[in-house]
Amino acid sequence: MQAHFLAVGGGTGFCRLQLTHAAGLGHSFFTMEDANSYLALFFEPIRHYLQDDAVSEILINGPNQVFIELKGKLQATEARFVSEPALKAAAVNVAKNVGRLLNEDNPRLDARLPDGSRVHAVIPPLARCGTVVAIRKFKKEKLTIGQLVEFGSITAAGAQLIDAIVKLHKNVIVSGATSSGKTSVLNVLSAFIPENERILVIEDASELQLQQPHTVCFETRKPDKNDKGEVTIRDLIHSALRLRPDRLVIGEIRGGEALDLLQALNTGHAGSMSTIHANSPRDCLSRIETCSLLSGIDIPLSALRAQVASAVNAVVHTARLSDGSRKITAVSEVLGLKDGEYVMRDLYLFHVQGIGPDGSLDGVFTGTGQKPTFLHEAHLRKLPLDEATFELAPGVQLV
Question: Which domain holds residue 209?
Answer without folding.
Answer: 145-390
